[in-house]
Amino acid sequence: MQLGAVNWFYFAAPQRFYRLAGQLLPWCFVLASLLAVWGLYIGLWLAPTDAQQGEAYRIIFVHVPVAWMSMVVYLAMAGWAGVGLVFNSRLASMMACALAPTGALMTFLALWTGALWGKPTWGAWWVWDARLTSELVLLFLYIGFMSLHAAIDDPRRADRAAGLLALVGVVNVPIIYFSVKWWNTLHQGASVSLTKSPSMASTMLLGMLVMALACWAYCIAAALLRVRSIIVEREAHTAWVQDLARSA
Amino acid sequence: MSSAGWSDFWHMGGYALYVWGSLGMCAATLLIEVLWLAHRQRKLIELISAGPDSDAGESST
Lengths: 248, 61
Description:
The complex is a heterodimer.
Chain A: H1 14-46, H2 60-87, H3 90-122, H4 130-151, H5 155-169, H6 172-182, H7 202-234, H8 239-247
Helix pairs in contact in A: 1-7, 2-3, 2-5, 2-7, 3-4, 3-5, 3-7, 4-5, 4-6
Chain B: H1 6-11, H2 16-49
């Protein structure tokens, strides 16, 4: 690994990052829990009933945040995989591996909550609509990344092969995001966008944003927890991990 | 929703299955993920502290 004069490579050493992750973990989990309680209080209790969809619309408070995270985690995973490929950094590739299962879980939850929302509002659990199909492809990309990584014995070779797959798969993220614009989809358009004011009541918007932050905190926490296991697993032969295990 | 009682809250205007089915699955899977990860970390440390003869994960040594 190349440790230059650049300071932010300091934590690129797995041993240092292991400790940092351990210190950040509890805060991320506490933050995620507090934000989730606050967000659900707004979403389930304070937010008014929707005029068209009744109470069924409340699924939005989990559906949109997990769907956002399914894409954000993918971008983060591909970003770390790219850093791992370019700088030949072990830790970056470990971060990509740590993000994949959580991202896959977010994608599964987006599809699950979407199905439970689709049934009462569209009358169907599933349609082969561009948004739903591209989100399903995202799930397969996550599964492909994890399977490919698991199929190669040498971890560094696995990092490179799976990292390349992750980078190629990035093309799917804008397809998911813009699918509701590019094609005629049953799925509704974006409720929140950077270019125009949101098309929803401010209480609903606040609840959704708080839940989105809760999901951010959760995903960071889960990835940090998992990367600690991956570090210990891959560095099991090193003196510091042996010391760590003995003192535990 | 704020003016309604608890039974109305759980009833969700007839959409209880869909709303609670969504939230319940999210809560359950996230909880399982965290518990599983914490368990895995403990097991790994135990395995490594047991000595070099025991098999510690994917490490090739």
